[in-house]
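Design request, tokens follow.
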């Protein structure tokens, strides 16, 4: 199985006030060509599809147009929400896209199994499990407590993120362990203790 992993498209992002739709369109055309030329079975998009929580109509059209073309080229697509994305914008088309074998997880799910995507072949056999973790927001993981220090808030958030990933790892291990099915985990999050030249 050949998988192409990508993230941080930031469709609609401006550069010094300049619109970049032509550049984003060129990227999506290039990505589609790669899916075809490399014979990719599945595409993963791990967050920040859009640059803002309220993307323009042109940005949404570009996104949906790409998915309409890409689902004809690869067998499946998994999309998770990032910190720039609006969970409701992404999840708004979730049910419709599921019929095209496009799996969208825009926000933390109440039922953790909804973040576990099962990839099947035409015979209905499970080929892989994908733990599709969206960006986990503070409000998704903890409740505010009066008088809490910033350190306490930060620790509870970190503990909540770790707990979420641990529970999903346990679930995916239970499902894939008996069959020795490949398991993939994706997420969109900030990593502590890292340094980089740019975003």
């Amino acid at each position: 199985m050949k998988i192409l992993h990508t993230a941080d498209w930031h469709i609609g992002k401006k550069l010094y006030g300049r619109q970049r739709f032509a550049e984003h369109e060129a990227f999506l055309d290039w990505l589609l060509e790669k899916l075809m030329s490399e014979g990719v079975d599945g595409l993963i998009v791990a967050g920040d599809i859009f640059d803002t929580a309220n993307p323009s109509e042109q940005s949404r059209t570009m996104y949906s147009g790409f998915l309409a073309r890409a689902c004809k080229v690869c067998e499946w697509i998994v999309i998770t929400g990032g910190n720039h994305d609006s969970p409701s914008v992404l999840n708004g088309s979730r049910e419709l896209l599921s019929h095209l074998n496009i799996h969208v997880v825009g926000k933390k799910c109440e039922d953790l199994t909804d973040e576990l995507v099962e990839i099947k072949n035409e015979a209905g056999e499970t080929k892989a499990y994908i733990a599709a973790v969206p960006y986990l927001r503070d409000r998704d993981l903890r409740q505010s407590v009066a008088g809490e220090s910033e350190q306490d808030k930060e620790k509870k958030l970190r503990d909540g993120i770790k707990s979420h990933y641990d529970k999903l790892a346990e679930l995916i291990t239970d499902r894939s362990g008996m069959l020795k099915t490949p398991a993939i985990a994706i997420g969109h999050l900030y990593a502590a203790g890292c340094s980089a030249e740019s975003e």
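Comment from the thread starter after seeing the answer: thanks! The chain has six helices and seven strands.
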